[in-house]
Amino acid sequence: MIRHIVLFRLRPEISAGQLDELMDALRALKDTIPEIRSFEVARDEIGSERSASFGILSSFDDFDALRRYQQHPDHQELLSRILLFCEWVRAWDYTLDG
Question: Which are the contacts of 69, defined by CB distance < 8 A and separation ≥ 6?
């Protein structure tokens, strides 16, 4: 099992409503991309200077499934929209033990 974590820092001018729309669109991916095994989307609750604005914690069977997810047209379309709203995006992928 592969864990895929992505953190996003939004541009300061992005509204809470715009963030809610992005998060809802991300959550909808689990309904259209069969490779997703688990998928959590949440906003940061602390708001420190080094905090991301929101993030994704997801799981996939293997790295091939993760790549198919990343290449899926629904993911690609949403990613292009998200990148317009972000100062930075960071990802971390690793194999779960067991």
Answer: 4, 33, 35, 36, 60, 75
CATH tag for 2-93 (out of 2.40.70.10, 3.30.559.10, 3.30.70.100, 1.10.3720.10): 3.30.70.100
Are 54 and 8 a contacting pair, CB within 8 Å? yes
| Segment holding 64, helix H or strand E | helix 63-71
Q: What is the pTM of this model?
A: 0.92
Per-residue pLDDT reduced to its tens digit, 24-68: 999 999 999 999 999 999 999 998 999 999 999 999 999 999 999
Number of helices (H) and strands (E) in the chain: give both, helices first: 3, 4
